[in-house]
Amino acid sequence: MNDDDKSKCRATDVDDEDSGEYEQSTFDKIISTLLCRGDYAKQKLEARPVSFFQLFRFATFSDKILVAIGIALAILCGIGQPMVVLIAGRLTNILLVTKDFYNNETFWHDAYFNVYIYAAVGVTMVIITIMQYICFKNASLNIARNVRSEYMRSLLRQNVGWFDSQKSGTITSQLNENIDKIKDGVGDKIGLILRGVTMFVTCIVIGFIFEWRITLVMIGMGPASAVLMSSMARLTDRASVKQLEAVGHAGAIIEESIMNHKTVAACNGQETMIDRYSKALARGRKYALQIYSFAGLFDGLFFLIMQNYLPIIALQIGLITRLYECTSGAVYIDGVDVRKFNIGWLRNIVGVVQQEPLLFNGTVIENIRLGNPDLTDAEIVDVCKTANAHDFIEKLNKGYETLIDAGGVQLSGGQKQRIAIARAIARNPRILLLDEATSALDAESEIVVQNALKKASKGRTTIVIAHRLSTLRDANQIIVFNHGKVAEIGTHKELAEKDGGIYAALVQSQKFKEEEESGKKGSTYTAEASMGSTTIVIAHRLSTLRDANQIIVFNHGKVAEIEEEESGKKGSTYTAEVDETLASFERTTSTQSGQRKVSVSSISSSHFARCSFMESSRISWPIQQVIIEEREDTEPGILVDEKQSRKKHREGLWQLYTKSGNFGKLIAATVLSAIRGMELPAHALIFKFSFNGFASDDENVMMRELLNVFIAYIALGFACLIALFSATFSFGWAAESIVDSLRLRALRNVLYQDASYFDDPHRSHAIIVTRISTDAPNIKAALDSRMMQIVNNFAAIIAMMIAALIFSWEIGLLGTACLILLVIGQYFTANRMQHCNDEAINNDLTGQLAIEIVEQVRTIQLLTREEHFHVEYDEQLRNALKYQKKSGPYEALLFAVTSSFMYFSDMASYALGISLIYHGLATPANVFTAAVSITTGGWALIMVSGCLNTFILAAPASDSLFRIINAKSTTGDIDGGQRPHIDGKVEFKNVRFSYPTRPNQSILNRLSFTALKGQTVAIVGPSGSGKSTVISLLERFYQFSDGHVKVDGNLIPGISLRYLREHMALVGQEPVLFHGTIAENILLGTCGKTMEDGYDTEVGERGAQLSGGQKQRIAIARALIRNPKILLLDEATSALDADSERVTVYINNLFWNVISSVTCKYFLCISL
């Protein structure tokens, strides 16, 4: 091996950055220093920082033009805002200096000139603000869309090794929350900052022009404020980082819980997952409360100062396709290191069929076309016929246009596998990689597909990973692995005849040549497993039927024939099936030439390799009665591609406040916030004292009045410190408690739903995850500090209206009318905004698609359809953007009118006040106080509108989340019902069932059978025949429509569902593990440790760090450790090697005398 071969290869994308430490940009350092955050300026960063200006590299030229226009307009707004102070100052001087007001024409003209200026500036500000808001809004939405698009492009470019080290829930959380923060940062927040900075500079200039000494003193307060801001930022940033980590962990938990809903339900693991989620939320809540505490304390202090003034085999495919990079050595194709190939080109010439096929949300034909977008419909039909998928596809409700849900969860395993094979064949690859490609097929389908795969393999290199040694007979070369190294190489004949060889031992264990030995071995296991009990088997594996005293043949769910003992009745379905299968199998085992095929098998112990799945004798039992279900390729539950009409009962925020609990916290927070709202009325009153003091001709009286003003401000500062801290913390506490409670209630209700709940296209697993993840943060706007702002400002508005009426009822009535008109305008504008936001939420499918892409990125990369999914995601982003922009004009109008309201309110108040003073109907002091009260009320209303945009989002989010919380499960109360003693007797009698989405298509038709305590019923049939439906009904994932299902004579709908599942255990064909350690997944274990960290080994998200067989063994251990009375096995040993399966069978035998078992099997076992 040369030096290049020994070079280390990173498991990261080729575009990834080198690790190292980085410094902040110069711009960021300046900002950090100005904010007294010198520690930030010196801080070393693990990743290369992105400067503020670099965010705009995702902006198009038109976006940059919009931002430039927005910046110019924001500066104009910042200059125009202080004009209200200048105009008010001019009017105040006129009121203070003029001594005779009655019929004073000079006073009249001078005063009204300023009123006209108010009107002109107000109209100008409205126009400028609307244009500025729309510019920044549209630019930020466009930039965020581009960032999301590039983020997804980068995700699709990463290799699988990178994804194995990440949590998909965290990735999607970053995609949503972090990019939303970027959108805020490059949007109107820029306008607010620029306007604020411009206002600050303009006010400083005005201050120096009018009184430089006072201005210098006021500037001296800046450093004190900056120190407070710096201290608050230091403390809150630490808590914010930890809170984000906890929120990301919680997001990962909720995603894996809901996406694997059936596994959680079957294990009665709802409370475990809820408890994990609750603990993650509690950690986040702890840090959030710290943030609220710091914010309330430092805001109060600021106010006070201012007022004072993978496994071996699977790894081979990963290395060849460069899903992973090798750590040393190299992989060659035609003598060229694969690392020198373009990844896209490399994956285009390689076709992969995996053991666990993954399909995507879309129609059948769209899934197959992912293999080759250039195929015509006729060519797709041809490849489906080759994969033996055409017949069952034609029987779907819409044929090739039938919609299948994300992950293909509504198709049986065999149906998904055949579509995946068709997708691989469609690529016409030069290298074909088959990782247990036929593991989910029934015998007849497997024979046809195996033959098709042999034809497809002609002229191309084929690498086969197989449990079934029968599939390796025709391989030109068989490579036996042992502990990651090549142990043996040769043909089947050479290796089988090698004395003491690993492969020879494997052949012997599977009885590869001697059919009769299968029966003997089966009898051995039969004796161990049955322990003299009666067994009922529904099977395709004919070897499991040879000891049956009676065979009952089913046809369309009804008994068609009864075969006695030898099952040799001429012309019977059973005999015909045996003859046909044997003949077909003989045809497929004929030697194929002219092809280059390499088969790989793994060794999980020093003695045994992966076992042949064709060998059923390892798990066969003595059979007194057997039922065979005739093949019937009906599919068990495809989603109907039609929108179901749903009446949406909207209660908005009312239900949030009345049905969320925590009333004590809400009431306390509301009262404290209302008290804090008295700050503005107190300001108005103090202004009156100031006006009276300055109006006095006696200097001593003026100083005495101003001293009282000084004392009043000190008292007001301390009062606001206490009130602000209390209100901020109280609302923060209430918000975190309520939102976390709603998240838990939503997760709890979803996990306790039956499977039919997710059959609705509007309630797919991904959509539910997205809704809970996005709705909960949006609801916070109606509960946290933004709600505090709304409460205290509304309290201030009411108080200011009362004050205005007291000092001048005429101005009070006029000002109140103006405020009411503004509120009405806000209400109707907000309604339109809410309608637009509802529309945007309902049409935004980006979250669902992002989850699907992240979950199935391996399949996407193997298909080299990264660009296809990126384009699809980009289209969804564009569609969502179209709806998001609809609310922009309404938001702009609302923001512009409210922020400019003071100009018009001052204009109206002073116009009327001047007239009253001119005619001697009011005093200047009362007019001034009333006008200031209305103006201050207008400021309060502006503060409300600043929170209104996000507050409005809370209403549809509340409706959406409560729809999830209030959804009723058809299974009812999981704890309600009887709790009878359960021994394990199971009875199906005249059971009929159709999936809710296809009520006219019968899946089970008057099905009847009985399994006594300790008996085994093996259910076998072709893919899509409804075998797993029996398990779904026993687990009560679905409710049968007629007949009854009993356990120990008790109807299962009358038994407590939790209690029933406590006595059941399910091991599925596709094992599901959750993030955590092995011990956390199985709770206890009895098998030996095989990994470095033993039972503390992390399995990774979805068990990504383990092989399929390892995951399956842990799933089996998880089932057996519960000591169930009823054990449900759906191809439970499909991913195990011979040694592991023997150990598993032995363990199972220890339980068989107390366990009733329903086992789904696909294969006709023909031992050679």
TrEMBL record:
Highest classification ranks of the organism: Eukaryota, Metazoa, Ecdysozoa, Nematoda, Chromadorea
Residue stretches spanning the membrane: 65-91, 111-136, 192-210, 216-235, 287-306, 710-735, 790-807, 813-830, 892-918, 930-955
InterPro entries according to UniProt: AAA+_ATPase, ABC1_TM_dom, ABC1_TM_sf, ABC_transporter-like_ATP-bd, ABC_transporter-like_CS, P-loop_NTPase, Type_1_exporter
GO cellular component, one term: mitochondrial inner membrane
ABC transporter domain location: 272-508, 986-1167
GO terms assigned for molecular function: ABC-type oligopeptide transporter activity; ATP binding; ATP hydrolysis activity
Biased composition (Basic and acidic residues): 1-13
Keyword set includes Translocase: no
Membrane topology recorded in Swiss-Prot or TrEMBL: Multi-pass membrane protein
Protein name per UniProt: Uncharacterized protein
Biological source species: Ascaris lumbricoides
Primary localisation category: membrane
Domain of life according to the entry: Eukaryota
Keywords, ordered alphabetically: ATP-binding, Membrane, Nucleotide-binding, Transmembrane, Transmembrane helix, Transport
Keyword Lipid biosynthesis: no
Any one of the GO BP annotations: oligopeptide export from mitochondrion
Region feature (Disordered): 1-20
Domain ABC transmembrane type-1, residue spans: 68-307, 667-953
Cell compartment(s), UniProt: Membrane
